[in-house]
Amino acid sequence: MDATPRTTPRKSATFDDYSLSEIRRAAASGIYDIRGGGAKRKVPHFDDLLFLGASISRYPLEGYREKCATDVWLGTRYAQKPIHLKIPITIAGMSFGSLSAQAKEALGRGASKMGTSTTTGDGGMTEEERGHSSILVYQLLPSRYGMNPDDLRRADAIEIVIGQGAKPGGGGMLLGQKISDRVAEMRTLPKGIDQRSACRHPDWTGPDDLEIKIQELREITDWQKPIYIKVGGSRPYYDVALAIKSGATVVVLDGMQGGTAATQEVFIEHVGLPILGAIRPAVQALQDLGMHRKVQLIVSGGIRNGADVAKALALGADAVSIGTAALVALGDNDPALEEHYQKLGTTAGAYDDWHEGQDPSGINTQNPELSARLDPQLGGRRLANYLAVMTLEAQTIARAAARATVHNLEPEDLVALTVEAAAMAKVPLAGTDWIPGSKTYE
Amino acid sequence: MPDIDLSVTPLRELNAALHQLTPETNERHWVIEHPAGGHAIAAGLNVPVTVEINGSVGYYCAGMNKLATVLVHGSAGVGVAENMMSGFVHVSGDASQAAGARGAGGLLRIDGNASSRCGISMKGIDIVVQGSVGHMSAFMAQSGNLVVFGDAGDSLGDSIYEARLFVRGSVKASAPIASRRRCATSIRLPCTTCSLVGASTARSILASSSDTGRPARSTLSTSITQESIDGRDAEDDATQVCDVRRL
């Protein structure tokens, strides 16, 4: 008989290949890892929910023939000029600086074609995005880069950013590789020097101050603009309640899958809630204050398709926001660029070093040669196509659930495939009437 | 000369009237009575008019001011002249936190003291404080000049980029280590006018400094005038210039 049989070499589930590689990288470099994008770890998500559809107990609407509305009004509380979107999908805030001017233009073109809004970001408003965005939301961030009253007045809404899902509690970051002459000028920064933004606003420190800050913004804009407040998924019940108390007309809630231009990997993967776990507490806060559907809720973080849209709306949101998915629609991480990704030591679908400014797709860069690769008109058409598909998919599901508008979807239309998702979404585990943490349907 | 009594006229009505002014208006001098600590008074002005406020104001007075002159005959609450783009704001009393926060231009003059975070995130504004400033003043300051005739509190200029800070009195020594190291460039100037001479001298020092490691900005705002600092003893010979630059 030959030698004693050996057990198969076994790798640790705890010290997996990725963890080992990160330990080696940290040991060699002495610096923490920075990257773009959102959480890559698997967390409970919309895939863990299913719609029930219709049968004898509920009659569906006829697909393609019977109307299923998708439009939504945002900012109906206080604002003299609320926003009317034709679809319940908006484009999230992404800065010029992080993105190329071509990318910002493409986002504006695509969103405008579909009758929805796009959002500025931590870098001010560019002419490209204002010129090509029929509805533009202007962000007021802790850094206040590029903030000026002229742009405030020519925006269609104002979004006070308190946090984002990828890094709730953290400030912005834009490394020197992307601080071009134009970015430096807009942000009053020296060219080529790393920029790290504050995580707190400079002129208010709590919800009472925030209420007065909002009053100032309303006074400056003559009470015309909707005022959004964006928070990361952290303590959604209390954060949303305080946002409402402060006078927000719209609350934007961003889960940990939501992307960022750059921050620490440890922040992205270990801080904040997945969006699935954040929506129901937020909606509960709105309901407890009698503000559900009066103060609108936009959710974001990992929205990929019409099913995700429909599920978010069914859980109580008024609209969703997309960032990473919109960039993919423009061409980010496209396998057609695999050769370029290989040169950067990565592969299509995994590229996340957006902060380095070498994005071969021309989206996450300020390199003129790279950014010239992105055709804003073509990118706009691709984004519009993608938004149209998502909308049609959401309508398909809504009709099957016998809803004449996508906003009539509700938690009763959903079941969960896992105990975790059932508990987070507060819908029953499939095939049961059990909602963990609750005895009955909500 | 419009004379508005805020105990009678709603704030919304006042600000709406100010926002409707055009550059050609003949109503160039407004007087506001009984502000009673109200918030956002004269916020968002966009024309070269003068607004004189007789009394103390609340938060965000003259917020995002552009072109206008706003004179507060009293004290100001949080965020006076925050995000100012241009123009002149004068507070004859004290100012609360975050005075001139994020200001991009213009001149903010405070005759009394300013509380914490004066000039936080400043991006080109000039701020002159005849008294002292509180902690975290000029935190993350990017551009502009902060001139303090009194003392500066803790963490002055923490995480500063390229603003210039001038302090006649003492700077609390418990600033972060990086800031203290940068403060090694501080000098005592035989100052006669403090601001212009100080800025010019500081600029030349910085140009030759091996300690900054950062290219100087191409332009330096020098809109502080002698008139703006009248009332101080110009013969004082001890002015500390502290230029702190981020690594």
Largest sheet properties of chain B: 11 strands, mixed
CATH architecture of chain A: Alpha-Beta Barrel
> Strand tally of chain B, please?
11
Largest interface, counted by CB within 8 Å of the partner chain's CB: A-B, 27 and 42 residues
What is the N-to-C order of secondary-structure elements of chain B (H for helix, E for strand)?
Answer: EHEEEEEEEEHEHE
Distance between the termini of chain A: 66 Å
Q: How would you describe this protein?
A:
The complex is a heterodimer of chains A (442) and B (247). Chain A is an alpha/beta fold and 442 residues long. Chain A is globular, with a radius of gyration of 22 Å. Chain A is 33% helix and 14% strand. The mean pLDDT of chain A is 95. Chain A has one domain (57-409): Aldolase class I (TIM Barrel, Alpha-Beta Barrel). In chain A, the strands form 5 sheets. An 8-stranded parallel beta sheet of chain A has the order 5-15-14-12-11-8-7-6. In chain A, strands 1-13 form a two-stranded antiparallel ribbon. A two-stranded antiparallel ribbon of chain A has the order 2-16. The longest helix of chain A is centred in the last third of the chain and has 25 residues, at 376-400. With 247 residues, chain B is α/β, with parallel strands linked by helices. Chain B has a single domain (3-242), classed as Pectate Lyase C-like (3 Solenoid), CATH 2.160.20. Chain B has helices at residues 11-19, 177-182, 195-208; strands at residues 3-5, 29-33, 50-54, 69-73, 88-91, 107-110, 123-129, 143-148, 164-167, 187-189, 239-242. Chain B starts with a strand and ends in a 5-residue tail after the last strand. The model of chain B is unreliable at 177-247 (pLDDT under 50). The A-B interface holds A 143-144, 147-150, 152, 187-190, 193, 196, 198, 202-204, 209, 212-213, 215-216, 219-223 and B 11-12, 15-16, 19, 39-40, 43-44, 46, 58-60, 63-64, 66, 78-79, 82-83, 85, 97-98, 101-102, 104, 117, 120-121, 123-124, 139-140, 142-143, 159, 161-162, 214-215, 217, 246. Chain A: Residues 77-331 form the Glutamate synthase domain.
